[in-house]
């Protein structure tokens, strides 16, 4: 199939966050004749000797650290593009993935495309509405691939911006919001507990694209793809038109994948239901992650939550002292009893949320939350955890939210330290199939080429 200007296998490596899809994995994928995707979300930089450059922030303010983060991100993206280009041996295509809601995404995109001219053939972008991605990519002669979860989302992108740059629209990525790993595009009108079948949603997307003269523009099916034989009715289907298949979760487990050995062994042991769709992310989006100790603590933290008022109102009429000074707030009588029990169990610190609730945590956890909020480096365009925002004030104008977490800190940790229990571990909902797929029997970990050869058989 013609993708980003070259005929390639319609098999695409999904781009996965901080240092999880890198130049080595994407270059190896492209070398098979497919499409490799490295992540430009705070990608790793290396020195002239190939040694990892540790990210250390010197700035005293959030804005100063934010500027440092941008420099690191551009350097890292260029580094990974060069590695991917060298490893591809001139085969396949190299794409770059960018999280549109990350801090200064437009500046990072421009900086990487400028510094890696001719090495990147396509850009995928989601987690937000990447209106300006089309203009930026077309300026550099690079194809763009918006990630959407509905025809409605693509309609908004097309009408506002994409119709002006249609010649560089390489394809549209439909990411199943119930099955994909990482951040998901569930809307407020969709039930996270009631997954919808992707076929009619993708058919609706194709019908809309036909209306815009995009009948032959590929749609990339992402999220929940494991065996191609399970998608046989999608291939050469006139209702859907050209279809490319994206593999994010399966691409985690290869020799070239940069994740730690601990992470690889963890995914080999997962069972169905171990991946949890949640809304703890500081982006405000739903996301899918392994239900490890990190996620369990967040769930328990939110469970230790009660509504409060600063003066008696309605059922909130029962006094309860909080903080070192014992300032009074008002809870319901039932919630006072629950709160007293939590305090007795050691969850003595109560933190206020933007929703007029109190969350009860240990003093140690409270110190960690406050430290992480103070050390924010503005990795997102808007962060509900730290209240950073990419605007003149540098703030969302809302209270910090202790029910969330510093996503930059935890993703950097799991990518580089191998701690798979106490850090955020993204994965797609099909990750449990590693344990049941005979291809991975006895802990077998394939090379990227072995995986792609396997995929071409239908398995």
Question: What does this protein structure show overall?
Answer:
With 459 residues, the chain is an alpha/beta fold. It folds into 2 domains: 6-268 and 433-456, Aldolase class I (TIM Barrel), CATH 3.20.20; 286-417, no CATH class. The chain has 14 helices and 18 strands. Strands 3-11-10-8-7-6-5-4 form an 8-stranded parallel sheet. A 3-stranded antiparallel sheet has the order 9-13-12, with no helix packed on it. α3 (62-88) packs parallel to α4 (105-115) and α4 (105-115) packs parallel to α5 (133-140). The longest helix is centred in the N-terminal third of the chain and has 27 residues, at 62-88. The protein is globular. The two termini are 20 Å apart. The model has no long low-confidence stretch (mean pLDDT 94).
Intertermini distance: 20 Å
Oligomerization status of the protein chains? single chain
Q: Class of the largest domain, according to the CATH hierarchy? A: Alpha Beta
> What is the alpha-carbon Rg in Å?
23 Å
Broad shape = globular
How many structural domains in the coordinates? Answer: 2
Any guess at the CATH architecture of the largest domain?
Alpha-Beta Barrel
Summed up, the helix count is 14
Helical percent range? 25-40%
Average of per-residue pLDDT values: 94
Strand content: 15-25%
Q: What would the CATH topology of the largest domain be?
A: TIM Barrel
**CATH homologous superfamily (4th level) name of the largest domain:** Aldolase class I
* Low-confidence parts: none
Number of strands: 18
Task: Kindly name the structural category.
Answer: alpha/beta
Strand order in the sheet with the most strands: 3-11-10-8-7-6-5-4
